Amino acid sequence: MLTLLDIHNLNRGAKLSAAMLLAVYFILAILQLQGYFEWRSPFFLLCVLTMMLVLQVDASRKGSTRWGWIALVFGLLSWQMPVFTLRYATLLTAAFFVVEYFYGRLSFLVALTAILASPAIDNITGVFTFPIRLWLSGMAGHLLHLVNPAITTSGNLILVGDSEFSVDTACMGLQMLLTSLLCGVALIALYQRKLQRVLSPVLLLLVLAFIVVLNVVANLFRIILLVQLVLPPGTAAHEMGGIVTLLIYVVLPLLFLLPRLIKRLGKARVQGPPAPVPYGYGMGLQLLLAAGIIGIHCWAPSKAAARAMPVKRLPGYTYTVLPDNVVKATNAEALLYVKPVKGFYFTDHQPMICWKGSGFEFHKVKEASIGGNKIFIAELKKDSSTLYTAWWYESGAHATNSQLEWRWDAGINGNDYALVNVTVEKQFLLVPTVTNLLNAHLILE
Questions:
Q1: What pTM did the predictor assign?
Q2: Three-class SS of residue 252?
Q3: Whole-number pLDDT of residue 291
Q4: Which of 242, 238, 241 is nearest to 177 (CA)?
Q5: Which of these, 158, 179, 242, 307, has the minimum number of CB atoms within 10 Å of its CB?
Q6: Residue 396, by phi and psi: left (phi above 0), alpha (psi -120 to 50) or beta?
């Protein structure tokens, strides 16, 4: 039978073990995640503040190993697929395992905050909300055209006389989607603490989905406001218009609905007295996981390389192989890049990122169908020069502009994909050049 002194010594040992494990994971996070987070950005600061707000533990429920098994799975995946996101997930879930085993059960809001803080989610929203931006430009242009027939749309541009409004630059609402979701999580945590009631994970996810819808609505009205009042980018009025629509269409509805939802559908928070740490197989799992994570850091590959893909050599083009097995081809009329994607779980070399890094701005971005294949086309403008570009994803005879389609095919069927991007100086050359490239099936099987 344990004496009070024995229990006291066990508690001291548990606290020391937890502190040591958390210190190890913190050091590994600093070593492994350099360049993954923008540590000094306002968004990262918001993530830290939100995590501090939602971080609560139920000390009556210690000894849980659920995060340990999840961390073990992420660790094995990160050994096979050395990407930042899996390293982040491994370290984070391992830290959650330490907290839940030694201190108490974490709330679902903690996991949500950690997911929203991941740069991978920012990349996903940036890539997969692109069709929504095109839809928003068309919808906003249609509504404005009903009021003013002189207003027209061209791809992601809304034209008002000599003024152009790009949904990409005016689309602050979509760019602030993760910020809105984090604010929503923070408000939920505040109201749950105030009312001493908690929402179920299903209801929490429904609330986040509702915030996404509110963001789309807010962005639609924001575009209409900016165009109707002719508020160009870079002005204080332009930014204020975005803030006002965000407050009216996102924040105010949440302030009205959340307390009522939590009060009516939330369950009463019940927390018993602190429980002792159960010394069982969980301690062995802690040590196994820590040893595995340290081993991954020491011996696993630090970076995955894109596999060289066989690219068909076309007559008239001069070919050069760049770093990451990117193939560059040029002729008198076109500049072609074929960029292999490392895997369906990786980000790709988006032209809207690469060309912007060279100082170009995208205009008139739209979807086009050429030879039965859907691609994206756009104008690139820098100073007084204009280029015309198109891009799609290709694997053998299959070409598409759908992120979901190519990633699904790559993940399920194991097909390797490359991003194909062709740029010309003369607009009339774009369609025939794209047609020839699509018919050539650049990626050899």
A1: 0.75
A2: helix
A3: 92
A4: 242
A5: 307
A6: left
Residues of the chain with pLDDT under 50: 1-10, 169-173
CA distance 408 to 398: 13
HSE at residue 144, side-chain half, CA atoms within 13 A, is 26
What digits encode the pLDDT tens for the residues 143-167? 877 777 777 776 666 776 666 666 5
How far are the Cα atoms of 17, 67, 113 from residue 178, in angstroms, in the given order?
35, 24, 10
Identify the pLDDT of residue 119. 85
- Is residue 393 within a helix (H) or strand (E), and if so which, with residue range? strand 385-395
DSSP string, 12-31: HHHHHHHHHHHHHHHHHHHH
Can you list the positions of beta strands (E) in 56-167?
Answer: 57-58, 105-106, 151-154, 157-160, 163-166
What count of other Cβ atoms lies within 10 Å of the Cβ of residue 23? 10
Give the SS3 label for residue 54. helix
Angle at which helices 177-195 and 201-228 cross, to 10°? 130
Tokens representing 187 are: 């408000």
| Torsions phi, psi for 319 (to 5 deg) | -110, 140
CB 164 within 8 A of CB 154: no
For residues 402 and 149, what is the distance between their CA atoms, to the nearest angstrom? 33
Q: If we measure between CA atoms, which residue out of 406, 404, 392 comes closest to residue 441?
A: 392
Tokens of 290: 């820590």
47 in Cβ contact with 182 (< 8 Å): yes
Q: What is the pLDDT of residue 193?
A: 92
